[in-house]
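ok trying this again, last paste got cut off
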Amino acid sequence: MSSWIDDQNRIRRRELGLSGALDQDTHARVSRRHPGLTREHCWICDAETGRAGRAEDSIYDFDDNGPYCEDCARSHAERFGGESA
């Protein structure tokens, strides 16, 4: 199940002709031109996660909340079945 923003980003990327995976240079150019379109942000602190999206390696908890940055994932470990730091 994708979120509304994921759907909107997918539609916008398709309109821009960016339906495939982006190399890092293209990713940076698109991000400068369309801020927020290609960068994934933590749902807790709004920091960039540095990850590639739900279909790749993004961090989501057992209740499908996310994505998390690594710091927030560590500090909310109980949501993943571990102990909080």
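PB: full thing came through this time. Residues 4-15 form the longest helix (12 residues).
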